[in-house]
Structures are given as structure tokens and as C-alpha cells.
Amino acid sequence: MDPAASPWHLLGAELRYWRDEVRKLNLREAAAKALCDHGDLSKWERGLARMQTDVIDRLDDLYGANGRLAALHAAMTELDNYRMGRVAPDASSRDEDDDMERRAVMQILAALGAGAAIPPGTWDALFSGVERTIAGRSGIGVDDWSEIVWEHDFAYYTNPPGTVFQTIASDFAEVSTLLKRTSTATARSGLLRISAQLAVLMGMEMSDVGDQGSSLRAWRLARRAADATGDRDLRVWVRGWEAEYGYWAGRPAPVIARLANDAIEIADGSPSRSLAEAHMVRAFLLASQGDAASTQTALVDLRRTFDAFPDAVDSDQTSPLWSFRAWAQAWALAYPYALLGQTREAIDATDQARALCPPTFHGNAANLALVYALTQARGRDVDHGLQEAIATAQAWPVSTIRRLIIGQMLDDLPQKSLESEAAHELRSLTKGSVSDA
Description:
434 Repressor (Amino-terminal Domain); Cro/C1-type_HTH; Lambda_DNA-bd_dom_sf; 0% strand; Helix-turn-helix domain-containing protein; 22 helices
């Protein structure tokens, strides 16, 4: 099998990988469980036959591929139709660059499905349309994609790490194509704004699955796209999120401080969710360095910004990535207090955040549970903290945020507790890449 030989060879190689290496099933076992013929499955794995959508959906569920195989099959089918001329009327206008970006998305999805590294140059192909627009190339106009981004924001908050990247990358490729055809300045600015937000989401997702190199590329593009729009709030928003995820991913402290300070400088005192984010990240960074006085100053700045928010920032119609609710403010207090060993304050803030956090934001609930565990471990009840952390790590996939909090907790354990069975179990739950968790 040569995955580069044809789209169906690529799909076949993925099918074999998930059956043989991930699930450890032979052909007959897999075919019986997926309600298909083992001879047909063999042909599909060798790229000799095309398979139906219902079959790929059953195999995707059987192998636990979380939609990767189904998405790859859909992309292969669309590409095959494109090559055979069986395309929608408006697809005939796509040029060679469009096809290159489509292939880039398929390569990224295939690499994610196989747990492999993103092929070199793939991100360049995917980001090319936005890059050219930033440089001044024009094209045709397009409608606003704000509602799509809003839905992606909620999906990011309510789904496990790495599971919404596929749709985000596909939408980014489409926006990139539209940007190349846009000649109107207003439409181009609107699309660049959408591109910046989608790139932020890709940066978060790539960080959560452990691909920090791809995450950095997405963050850089998000900054450039935001700057190209001239939208102050967007520029602050991108830098605030990059600073926060840079902190969780372990980027150098001076880089995190620069991003947060840049966001504060660009905001120029205008209160916003993004400015609150920047002050929060400064508090996190200073608390991690043990600077209690400067941490308190950053938290005071955060409170002042929060109190000055316009009503729209706290609206139910605002996406989670653009809002800063009361539960988020409580979270912003709980974590630095936990790092500084201020047990009572940390517990009070954590309890408040847990009570206010939306029930569908499972990942945030897991983060708060780990802050509580960190507080216990650094306070009076190490064993309780370890058990809380183990239960959380077992119940929810390990993300960039949760990996760092668990690492900080383990690093600060006394020697006796560090050698305990509970500590070894917690460490084993976070071994390997984030996507393995």
C-alpha cells in the first residue's frame, strides 16, 4: 500500500492501521463486528474498491476513530468526484491552489487519525490563502461566518480535546479559498477576522493534542490576520488567548509576559473580555513564580476590568471565547491562590466557580476539580488531593491545561507522598502525548 498513490490507498492504509494496530483485530473479526464481508473489507484496505457511507460509519465507531475515518472517506469521495468531473456547478471555478489546500486538509486529518506528525509544508498549503490576502491579493466577496465560529466556540468548550479540529480546519480551508477571490475591502476584513478566530481555535486544539509546533504556526497566523484587520478588540483577543495557552503549554515566561503586555497596551484601557484575559494570564504567570504581591496587583487590575465590562460581554448570545462571566473571574482567582498556597481563598474561589460554571462545560469543570486537588495537595490534605486528581484524570482526557496543573501538583509533593502508589498512578495517567490520554 502506498498512501500517496491514490486517495483510496490513503483511506485503505488508515483502515488497516485502525483495525490492525489500534484495535488488534483480524479481518474476519472486524468484518463480523461491522456487519460487512471480510473479503470486501480486505479490498477496501487495499484500495481496490469503494465503500458505502454506512459501512465507514460503522467501522469508525468500531475502531473508536472519533469521526476521523468518516471524515477522511467523505474527503476522498469528494476529491474522487472532483477528478471525475462529478462536481457541483460552482466547483469548476476552483484553481490549482484550491486543490492544494483541500489536499492539505486531508493530509492533516490522515496524520491525526494515525497519530503521526503533520507532513512538512502542509500548514503552508492550508494557510496560503490567508497569507496571500494579508500580502494584498484580492478576490471575490463572501458572507459573514460569525455564526459558524460561534458554534465552533461552543463545540470547543463542550467536547473532548482534539475532536472539533476536523470541522474547524475544513472551514478554514473554505474561508482561505474565499479570501483569494475577495476584492472588496470590507469583505476581506470580515473574512480575515473569521480566519483569525478559526486559527485561534486550531491553535488551542493542536496544543491540546500535543502538537505544539502546529499550534505555534496557527497562533502566529492568527496574530497576523487580526493585525491586518485593524480591529483593536480582535488584536487584544488573539494575544490574550495565545498568552494563556502559551502559559499552559510551557512556553518561555518572557514570551507569555510579552504577549499579555502587548494585549494590555493595545487595549489602551478599553475594558473587554480580552483585556481581562491578559490580566488573568499575568496573575497566573506571577503566581507560578511565587510573586504574591505582583499577583495581587494583577488580580486587582482584573477585577477593575471585570467591573467595567459593558453588559454585552456577559450576554447569553456571546460565545464562550468572547465572554468573561462571573465563573471565569472566580477561576481566575482560584488557580493563582492555589499556586501561592492560599488555601482558604483558593477553596472559596473554586467553590464559587464550580457553582457558576455551565454544566455542559465539562472540560472547565475538570480544570476546577484539579485546582481543588492542587489546593488540597499544597495545603493540609495531600492524600485527598491525589485521589481527586486521579478521579479527574480518569474521567476526562488530559488537555494542555490539565497536564500542567497535574505536573505542578506532582512537582510540589513531599518526598513521602511522591513515592506513594497514588502519585505513581497519577503520573501514569498523564504519560505520553496529550492525545494518548
